[in-house]
Design brief:
Length: 622
């Protein structure tokens, strides 16, 4: 085998050997205090989430807490160093994240003996730290530009008469570091307000002092990890206690303290700070070296305020800087519905003006500031009046047919009565003839009575009432009422009622008028159309969405497409002598019953008028 063949075989073998998986990265978090404390918990979560998002499962986290506010013995640093040395003697993290300045101080003081050459990313450290403390090349991070001046500016803007500013803090190492920064920033305000630092008091005495501050005072809260008596505190809990008893507004400069009873201020985001530090760490774990990653400064702060505290202290919201975030604002009814209220009032005024122009006698009894409810009741009353007038007009037009409908049974009654009298006089009455004649008279009386009852129901004028109504019965009544008129015009009527049709809840008189108007409209359309095919077909059915539908199809003259909607408007008639009110009133009645009405062209000729009304919960005949 020649050398070339050997090399080719070795290459194939190497390709078949699976590549070793990249080792998991380890990140050590070092916190100055318990990472479960609210502010540190936010940073802890944002750090972990960001590392996981970029490295997926290829990262492992170790975590340490120095607990500096609880252990203040002079030799505590040495004990920590020895503990770390034993614990990590055989473990070397790929990256260390120092959270807050005390953690960074501890690591820088002991890095050569504990973690030589391990890159460190810090967060929670003030940018002034770098001015006095040179950083090794393997150390970088995200610095905070802590500046309390903008928060004091807004406090004095909201409280222009402020005479006393009280700065509240604790005695822990980190508490003292923030107090040094605050003294630097507040020196420029000493000629404007009297500044008092409440930083060495035990918590009970601090609470009593905060509850009895002089008038025209404001409070700036820093942190309290430890009070003047050496007791350890969670800064959030300490702030909540102070804000709960203080007789002056409290301002802060970090967003983690919002929602604890403070007004707000010019704050920085703890979550954003943690994420920026994690992004730096990811870049290092991907191979970038710290000398090429200079320290960055967190993004600009934001003005955030609690609307509830602005109201509590009677602070003018108009004085906050433009673009500020206002949290927990309670929106008033006016703010939520201002457009609707203005529109509603405008419509009420226009409607009142229209009624004044049309009905002068009624306008004198209406007030200019009538409520929407009164306007709605008045509109309903006018609709009922107009509907009643239209019923009278329609029945007047059908007077000849109605007279014939009543006259026929009366003539039959008279004829049968005369026949009975003649037979009785002549003694010629056969067995059974009396019963037959009297039966005919009873049927004719019943027929006339039914016709009169239908007329009475339509003529009736009384307040609208709602009850369960069978639409099949309504249609049958109106077909019978118009039977003579339709027959006289040679119009054939077919009614196809649906079986088990649900009932509807409505006014029987108004629903009769709707069906009457639809039939009269179809009758008029046929009268104006071709005379070869004259038919009205009526169907009832259960429509989609639990509604009862009535469809009236005619073979009349039809209508232009543009008129299908216009014919339902007031005075929108296509008839030469029509008033244009029948279908308009029908639409208003149907809408009042929460239904709808519309027209469509038939495939052959004529129109179909559709009515849908919501069905009642119980079926007809139940």
């Amino acid at each position: 085998m020649n050398l070339r063949a050997v090399l080719l075989s070795l290459a194939v073998l190497l390709l078949c050997i699976p590549a070793a998986a990249a080792p998991r990265k380890t990140v050590l978090f070092v916190f100055d205090e318990n990472p479960d404390l609210p502010g540190l918990a936010v940073i802890n979560r944002s750090l972990r989430d960001t590392f996981k998002a970029d490295l997926a499962s290829d990262v492992e986290f170790w975590s340490e807490s120095l607990n500096l506010s609880q252990f203040k013995d002079p030799g505590y640093d040495v004990l920590l160093r020895d503990h770390f040395a034993r614990k990590y003697a055989n473990k070397r993290p790929d990256l260390i994240v120092a959270v807050m300045q005390p953690s960074l101080d501890f690591l820088l003081n002991n890095r050569q003996s504990l973690f030589p050459d391990v890159p460190i990313v810090f967060c929670g450290v003030d940018s002034s730290y770098m001015e006095t403390q040179p950083l090794p090349p393997t150390v970088t991070g995200v610095a905070i530009k802590r500046n309390y001046a903008p928060t004091i500016d807004i406090a004095l803007r909201l409280q222009p008469e402020t005479q006393n500013l009280f700065v509240v803090g604790g005695t822990a190492k980190f508490d003292r570091q923030l107090q040094e920064i605050a003294r630097r920033d507040l020196a420029a305000y000493e000629d404007r307000v009297r500044i008092t630092y409440l930083t060495d008091l035990p918590m009970p005495e601090l609470l009593a002092t905060a509850a009895n501050l002089p008038e025209k005072s404001a409070i700036l809260y820093l942190t309290i990890f430890s009070d003047g008596a050496g007791s350890a505190f969670i800064p959030h809990d300490a702030l909540a206690e102070i804000a709960g008893v203080a007789n002056a507004p409290v301002y802060v400069a970090v967003d983690q303290y919002l929602d604890l009873g403070v007004v707000g201020g010019h704050v920085y985001s703890v979550d954003t700070h943690g994420r920026q530090a994690a992004h730096l760490g990811v870049r290092i774990l991907h191979g970038e070296t710290t000398p090429n990653l200079p320290v960055i400064e967190q993004a600009a702060n934001a003005y955030i305020f609690d609307w509830r505290q602005l109201r509590r202290w009677n602070l003018d919201e108009a004085r906050v800087p433009a673009g500020s975030e206002i949290r927990h604002r309670t929106v008033s009814i006016w703010d939520m519905y201002k457009g609707y209220i203005v529109a509603g009032v405008t419509i009420a005024i226009l409607q009142s003006a229209l009624i004044v122009g049309l009905l002068v006698s009624l306008s004198q009894r209406r007030r200019a500031d009538a409520t929407a409810r009164k306007a709605e009741n008045e509109a309903r009353r006018q609709r009922d009046e107009l509907a009643h007038a239209l019923r009278l007009t329609t029945l007047g037009e059908l007077a000849a047919s109605i007279t014939h409908e009543i006259g026929q049974p009366l003539v039959a009654i008279q004829t049968n009565a005369h026949a009975l009298r003649r037979l009785a006089t002549r003694g010629m009455m056969q067995p059974g003839e009396l019963d037959e004649a009297l039966g005919d008279i009873v049927d004719d009386v019943k027929r006339a009575a039914e016709t009169i009852e239908r007329l009475r129901l339509l003529f009736r004028k009384q307040p609208s009432e709602r009850k369960l109504v069978d639409m099949n019965s309504i249609v049958e009544d109106m077909v019978r009422l118009l039977r003579s008129d339709l027959s006289g015009k040679d119009i054939r009527v077919e009614f196809h009622p649906a079986e088990r049709l649900p009932q509807v809840v409505g006014d029987p008189v108004q629903l009769r008028q709707v069906i009457l108007n639809l039939l009269v409209n179809a009758e008029d359309a046929i009268a104006r159309g071709p005379g070869d095919y004259r038919q009205i077909r009526i169907e009832t059915q259960t429509a989609t969405g639990e509604a009862v539908a009535v469809v009236v199809r005619d073979t009349g003259c039809g209508s232009e497409a543009v008129d299908l909607e216009w014919m339902f408007e007031r005075f929108g008639s296509t008839k030469p002598n029509g008033l244009g009110m029948g279908l308009a009133i029908s639409r208003s009645i149907v809408l009042a019953h929460h239904g709808r009405i519309w027209a469509t062209h038939n495939d052959d000729r004529g129109l179909s008028l559709h009515v849908e009304i919501p069905a009642a919960s119980e079926p007809a005949g139940s």
